[in-house]
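Title: Request for sanity check on Luciferase-like monooxygenase prediction

Description:
We are preparing a figure and want to confirm that the structure record we downloaded matches what your pipeline produces today. Could someone re-run it with the sequence below and paste the raw structure tokens into this thread? We only need the token string, no images.
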Amino acid sequence: MENLKLSALDLATVCKGDSPKQAIERTVEGAQYIEQLGYERIWLAEHHNMEHIASSATAVLIGHVAEKTSKIRVGSGGIMLPNHSPLVVAEQFGTLESLYPNRIDLGLGRAPGTDQVTALALRRNNLNTPFYFKDDVKALLHYFENDDPSEKVRAFPGEGLAIPLYILGSSTDSAHLAAELGLPYAFAAHFAPAMLAQAAAIYKEEFKPSSYLAKPYFISCVNIVAAETTAEADYLATSLFNMFAGIITNFRKPLSPPTEKVIYDGIPEIERAVHSMTSCTFTGDTNKIREEVEIFVRTYEVDEIMTTNYIFDRQTRLDSFRYTKEALSY
């Protein structure tokens, strides 16, 4: 646990009564604050056609956050590679790395980050791109590593830059790929925990050392709501649980203030679905967070915890980042 790294995932979530601009300002504020606390990195996630998420132009937002901070690593959690040409991604992140040297991460996912209709719009009538994920990751690595001036297509900026690549996943497919390529692996336990144990085991067992990584490096993204007291944390967490209920029922709302009871109280079908999606959620004071996360880290041999923070109030959100850092500092 003494070597555990702590990071954050942000979607520039729009809060009730706010605009996308204000959501982005919250993201910047959070990044600046956790930089002061000593967090390792902050990642922004690519999603599309979601009214209350402002991180769709992920590379643009990464540049904005990097410009407003000075040392924290900033990256994608992730870029949904099937939506993009590997060349374009290489050029975009080559540009970011040129502007903010040794601070940019490139996390890659194979899902579209949206619904199928929007995916079709993004992919210009080609829904087969996820099947080429492995080839696209290899192409991207090649653009960064190419040293052959006779290559007909090259990435500028990008070529020769050591931008760390991470494979993201919420099932076992990406675990196999990350292990095969010898790349670090990040699992989305914050919303899809069902295959966490299986994916973690596959990655560790099948990992092949590479020029990028000598041994497995496993990141798990989880939800953490930390507060001065466990009762307060449980209350604050209703915003998160209510948000997931909206996702499940396809009745999405902006992030809203906490409620005395979750909005699905007394509806067992929704309660079971929310519990299933959020079983890797930790709420409590620093002692409770420390105890529960320590068990989680040891169980799944986690090298880095990446936390979400779906808390409505701005200052309370920052306080949760601080309590989380205190809980996981050894």
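Thanks, this matches our download. Residues 5-231+281-327 form a domain with the TIM Barrel fold (CATH 3.20.20.30).
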